[in-house]
Amino acid sequence: MSQAELIQHIPRLRRYARALARDAARADDLVQDTLERALAKLDLWRPDSDLRAWLFTLMHNLFVNQMRSPSNQPLCELDEANDVPVSGGQMEALVVRDIHAALAKLPPEQREVMLLVGLEQFAYADAARILGVPPGTVMSRLSRARERMRQMLEGQQVTKLQVVK
Question: CB within 8 A of 78, min separation 6: which ones?
């Protein structure tokens, strides 16, 4: 892996980190930690594998570990007025804001799948490998995430799911 190959993945890593952390500073720290880990664990990367998927896996695992850390502080809420890009039209900006807000309200497992498959365009199998879950789990989480997003964007009351053990 060359430095140029690593650098070309930074914009996508930043976008995914920003969506996970929901805070620009924490996202930048997560990208830096991911790149640092990638360079330290370079001997574990297989040249015949997808570098982007490997980097996203490293980032996901780092994020999960940080969230489990007892020193972890609550996630910052998005300051939607400052984080939503505004194009020329107000209506488009409002739609983007609503989608962004609905995405932020999804449970983390559903948001991760929505971002990997919907935004980053990973195949189900690749997303499953990154998240460490079976492909069927990715498909069901994506289906639930899409349905919840649809309900939120249509202004419907979203029902809470019960956890069954």
Answer: 22, 100, 101, 104
